[in-house]
Design goal:
The protein is 62% helix and 9% strand. It is α+β, with helices and mostly antiparallel strands and 512 residues long. Keywords: ATP-binding, Kinase, Membrane, Nucleotide-binding, Phosphoprotein, Transferase, Transmembrane, Transmembrane helix, Two-component regulatory system.
Length: 512
């Protein structure tokens, strides 16, 4: 009840402010009407009327100023509890016109409230309380039609001057009783109109003070770009940190077992933990720097798109026209900045040697991994190599976590215009049958939703497959990376083994 009363008071306060705005306009109108009725010299009356019109027009000019639109927007946000986006450009004449429409509508609604409270309400109460006032009004302002000759508009009915001769009989159009009935009805209608104005005022504020349809589309596109970039960063954290933690955990287990039996092996495991941790810290530091820069508003659209380029990712939303520019910027340029140290400008530069190192890491912790690369890798664009590294790293991480039997085969086939990656876990697995990327993404998301909802039946018995939310996120990320290049990513069970197939089309010297 208290919240409703506060909301009602704020709406009433907005209308009262509109009434204050309308006071100069009402004063000019009253002055012009009074001058027209009281000045007998018509030329002078016309001059005063023209002067009133000029003053009225001058009073209307501020309604078209951008500062008035900004003040009205602030008023709406503070008292109507609205969030009105600001267009990312200077106000146009269309914006000024819409702002002026809201300004005049606001002033009209306030004037209606002001006139109702100050004029109509006291008059209605007086007429209801004193029937004689209603009688005088009906016989005077509202009721005379066809008065006798010589009768004045203010004379009571039938009191015509006898010397004026005979004329038409006076007729009372509205009786005193009818005036007493109509006055409260008019008051109720005005009250209903004011309530409707207060109710629809926030809607009009959003339409007239907010961005235009084109601006809303632009803002929506910018918001989609912002959400996409955050998704990109989340994916990078998932891929890099998830892999680093998995390798570190297993290397730590190796070091613990070899500590008293093979100190050389233990030292090698610790060194690998340090190296993996440094790379993870470098990538995490880069991601956090991007988040801080975005929060501070210090990164422009172009520089942020360049950072996305350094991460080697882009939007996988099909047909997203609002993201076309961001996508093209995110996939052009190719090379990655940074040298891998903490605080560097970008994540570590990746090469085919890093993909080979992934297989060596897995073998070092007791997970037999065979990497086969066929074709010439020298002509691959750097960003393609970067994506290959992340795809293979995710496949190795999933195999380390979920494979029922240690072992992974990774085959990279480099063609003239396409790279194909096929990974196969050594042990038997259960899960969805190998299918299209869309089917795999749908199954991964369904598994994630099942786990989030606590549906144990929906996720049980799917070890080694995309049944857990954690693994599904990585597989969905692989699918998105493949979609960037116009390729595909399929995963599932084939002949009892877990298979991941990725196809990345490319053209030499040109990004897809």
């Amino acid at each position: 009840m208290g919240a409703w009363a506060a909301k009602l008071w704020r709406r009433l306060l907005v209308l009262l402010i509109g009434g204050v705005i309308a006071v100069p306009y009402i004063a000019v109108i009253i002055w012009a009407v009074s001058a027209w009725n009281e000045v007998s010299d018509r030329s002078l009356a016309f001059s005063m009327l023209a002067f009133s019109a000029v003053v009225f027009v001058l009073l209307c000019i501020p309604a078209f100023l951008a500062v008035i639109r900004a003040l009205e927007r602030t008023l709406a946000e503070q008292l109507l509890e609205l969030s009105i986006p600001i267009p990312p450009r200077r106000p146009t004449w269309s914006d000024r016109l819409r702002g002026a429409l809201f300004y005049f509508g606001h002033a009209f609604a306030g004037a209606l409230l002001l006139i109702t409270v100050v004029v109509v309400l006291p008059s209605v109460l007086l007429m209801v309380a004193d029937p004689q006032q209603a009688s005088e009004l009906s016989n005077g302002l509202l009721g005379i039609a066809g008065s006798p000759a010589g009768a004045t508009a203010g004379s009571p009915a039938g009191n015509a001057d006898p010397s004026a001769g005979t004329g038409a009989e006076s007729v009372v159009v509205l009786s005193a009783g009818l005036v007493q009935i109509l006055a409260p009805v008019i008051l109720l209608l005005l009250t209903a109109t004011i309530i409707a104005e207060g109710y629809f005022l926030p809607h009009y504020a959003q339409i007239l003070l907010g961005p235009s349809a084109a601006d809303r589309a632009e803002l929506a596109g910018a918001e989609r770009v912002r959400r996409f970039r955050r998704t990109v960063l989340a994916r990078e954290v998932h891929d890099s940190i998830g892999h680093a933690l998995t390798v570190t955990m297993m290397q730590a287990a190796v070091a613990k077992r070899a500590l008293h039996q093979d100190q050389i092996l233990a030292e090698a495991a610790v060194d690998e933990i340090a190296r993996t941790s440094r790379e993870a810290v470098a990538e995490l530091d880069h991601v956090l720097a991007l988040l801080r820069a975005e929060a501070d508003g210090a990164v422009s659209d172009e520089s942020t798109a360049g950072d996305a380029d350094a991460l080697g990712v882009a939007d996988a939303i099909d047909g997203a026209d609002a993201l076309d520019g961001a996508e093209s910027e995110a996939v052009e340029g190719g090379e990655l900045a940074g040298d891998g140290d903490s605080g560097s400008a970008g994540p570590p530069r990746r090469a085919m040697l890093d993909i080979t190192r992934l297989a060596e890491e897995a073998r070092a912790i007791g997970h037999p991994t065979r990497l086969t690369v066929s074709g010439d890798a020298t002509g691959l664009p750097p960003t393609v190599v970067h994506e290959l590294h992340r795809i293979v790293r995710e496949a190795v991480t999933n195999s380390l976590r979920h494979a029922t039997t240690p072992g992974l085969d990774v085959a990279v086939d480099i063609g003239a215009d396409c790279v194909q990656v096929v990974t196969r876990n050594a042990g038997a697995a259960t899960g969805p049958v190998l299918g299209s990327s869309e089917k795999g993404r749908a199954e991964g998301k369904a598994a994630a939703d099942a786990k989030a909802a606590g549906d144990a039946k929906g996720i049980a018995g799917a070890k080694g497959a995309a049944a857990s939310a954690r693994q599904s996120r990585g597989l969905v990320g692989i699918g998105e990376r493949a979609a960037l290049f116009g390729g595909s990513a399929d995963w599932g069970i084939e002949n009892g083994q877990w298979i991941l197939q990725v196809r990345l089309p490319y053209s030499e010297g040109q990004m897809p």
